[in-house]
Design brief:
This protein is mostly helical. It has a domain at 61-187. The chain is 71% helix and 4% strand. It contains nine helices and two strands. It has helices at residues 2-6, 9-28, 30-35, 38-49, 51-55, 59-83, 90-95, 103-130, 134-168, and strands at 173-177, 192-195. Strands 1-2 form a two-stranded antiparallel sheet. Helix 2 (9-28) packs across helix 8 and helix 4 (38-49) runs antiparallel to helix 9. The longest helix is centred in the C-terminal third of the chain and has 35 residues, at 134-168. The radius of gyration is 20 Å and the shape is globular. The chain starts with a helix and ends in a 5-residue tail after the last strand.
């Protein structure tokens, strides 16, 4: 029975998804990056201060169901823009010579994380609409706030990419230090640049 499962199409599909999730999780930074994220902590703070809004009122869940799908469409569109980078000059700077933890992969991992947070927020919000539970409502509202704040985090990643491209476009500036994206915790640490004399 075990061998039949390992040889089945479903087993291959699950293993493929598992490998993709594992790579994304490592590049993003793992559980440490999630728990120490200022945006997650801010989402928890907003949830606690807005206790009357979600504890005794289920209207927030209906609002969340209408808000999050629109944000999910924005996330997928932003990811499509990232995947269009290889055809542009900026890709050479962001890809860091094909490093598996390049800034390019880091931005893509943050967008994938943004998408997963939104999908999970929709699921918890549906649970909050189904069950009258304060605990479920707490996590549902917190992930709603976290998904909104994650949009700001992704915006910071795009700004970092713009800074790298802007600096690399100057002939007298070159990148000299690049750190692994997997070690980044928001806010992003950008490569430092130094000036050098241009030989004439």
């Amino acid at each position: 029975m075990s061998n039949a499962w390992h040889q089945s199409v479903f087993s291959k599909a699950f293993r493929g998804v598992g490998r993709s999730l594992s790579r994304y999780w490592v590049v993003y930074g793992g559980i440490e990056a999630v728990l120490t994220s200022p945006f997650l902590l801010l989402a928890a703070f907003i949830t606690l201060t807005c206790f009357p809004l979600w504890a005794h009122n289920s209207k927030w869940a209906s609002d969340a169901i209408s808000i999050i799908p629109a944000m999910l469409g924005f996330s997928v569109g932003a990811l499509a823009i990232i995947l269009a980078f290889p055809s542009s000059a900026i890709f050479k700077d962001l890809a860091e010579d094909g490093s598996p933890t390049s800034y390019f992969i880091g931005v893509a991992a943050r967008l994938v994380h943004f998408i997963y947070v939104q999908v999970f927020a929709i699921y918890i919000t549906l649970l909050a609409k189904t069950y009258d539970s304060t605990i479920v409502s707490f996590f549902g509202f917190m992930f709603l706030c976290y998904s909104v704040l994650s949009a700001a985090a992704v915006g910071m990643s795009f700004f970092g990419a713009a800074e790298i491209y802007n600096a690399s476009a100057m002939p007298s500036v070159m990148p000299v230090q690049k750190k692994r994206v997997s070690r980044y915790i928001y806010p992003l640490k950008l490569p430092r640049y130094r000036r050098r004399r241009v030989r004439r």
